[in-house]
Amino acid sequence: MALAELKAALPDYAKDLKLNLGSVIGNSELPEQQLWGTVLACAIASRSPRVLRELEPEARANLKPEAYTAAKAAAAVMAMNNVFYRTRHLLSDPEYGTLRAGLRMNVIGNPGVDKTDFELWSLAVSAVNGCGMCLDSHEQVLRTAGLGRETIQEAFKIAAVVQAVAATLDAEEVLAEA
C-alpha cells in the first residue's frame, strides 16, 4: 500500500505527519470520489514526484476514469489560475482586475464529473498553491451547493498534509544526497 510506504518513509521528526496522513486519508468522512480526487489533485499540485508516484495508483484504483481525469484537470487548470489570480490580487494596481483574463478554462464549466467534486478539488489545489482569490471563489460555490464547512475543511486538511509530506520527503532526499 502506497500510503503505508509514504508513512514509513517519513523521518522520526515528522511523526505528526505520519499520523495526520493516515488520519486525513484513512479516516476521512469524504465520499471515495471526493477523497481520492482531492488526494490526486493535491499530489499533483505538490510537485513531488515521489508523493505522486506513491499516491497515484491508489487514487486511480479508487476513482472512475472520468473522475481520475477530472482530478488531473483540476490540478492543471488551477496551476494556471492560481498564478494568474494570485498575481492579479497581489498587484497594487486594481485596474488589472478590470481586464479580461483571456485564458481558457472551459473544464471548470464542464469537468465530466459532479461540479461539486471538481470545485472541492480546485479548492484543495488552490490551498496548496496559496491563492486567496481562488480559495474564496471555490469556497463560495461549495457553500452555495450545500457543502458544510467541515467537508470543505476536510479537503484543505488533505491539501495541507499532502503538501507537508511532499516538502519533507523532498527535503530529506536532497539532504541524503549532500
UniProtKB/TrEMBL annotation:
Role: Antioxidant protein with alkyl hydroperoxidase activity. Required for the reduction of the AhpC active site cysteine residues and for the regeneration of the AhpC enzyme activity.
Record domain Carboxymuconolactone decarboxylase-like: where: 94-176
Subunit annotation: Homotrimer.
Lineage: superkingdom: Bacteria
Name of the protein described by the UniProt record: Alkyl hydroperoxide reductase AhpD
InterPro entries in UniProt: AhpD, AhpD-like, AhpD_core, CMD-like
Cysteine pairings via disulfide bonds: C131-C134
Alphabetized UniProt keyword annotations: Antioxidant, Disulfide bond, Oxidoreductase, Peroxidase, Redox-active center
Protein family (similarity comment): Belongs to the AhpD family.
Species for this entry: Streptomyces zingiberis
EC number: 1.11.1.28
Originating gene: ahpD
Pfam families: CMD
Reaction equation(s) it catalyzes: N(6)-[(R)-dihydrolipoyl]-L-lysyl-[lipoyl-carrier protein] + a hydroperoxide = N(6)-[(R)-lipoyl]-L-lysyl-[lipoyl-carrier protein] + an alcohol + H2O
Active site: C131, C134
